[in-house]
Design brief:
Blueprint lengths: L1 E8 L4 E6 L4 E4 L1 H7 L9 E6 L5 E5 L5
Antiparallel strand pairs: 1-2, 1-4, 2-3, 4-5
Organism: Stackebrandtia nassauensis (strain DSM 44728 / CIP 108903 / NRRL B-16338 / NBRC 102104 / LLR-40K-21)
Protein name: Cold-shock protein
Length: about 60
C-alpha cells in the first residue's frame, strides 16, 4: 500500500502516513530503521509493508526495489 508522509520525528524516527484512501497509519522507529532510509520529509510518497498483525514493518520509496 502507498501513502504520503504526514509526520516524522527524526529524533525518535517514528511517524505517520496518510494512505491514499485517507486512512492514517503510524509507524515505529523499528519500521523506519528496517527501511534503510536516513530521513523522510512531509509529503513524500512511500510504500508500506505490513506484517501478519497489520503493523508497518518497513517503509520504502516507490522508486526503490
Amino acid at each position: 500500500m502507498q501513502g504520503t508522509v504526514a509526520s516524522f520525528d527524526p529524533e525518535t524516527r517514528d511517524g505517520g502516513v496518510l494512505l491514499d484512501d485517507g486512512t492514517p497509519v503510524s509507524f515505529s522507529a523499528t519500521a523506519f530503521d528496517a527501511s534503510r532510509l536516513r530521513l523522510l520529509r512531509l509529503g513524500q510518497r512511500v510504500q508500506l509493508e505490513t506484517g501478519a498483525d497489520g503493523a508497518v514493518v518497513r517503509l520504502r520509496l516507490p522508486t526503490m526495489p
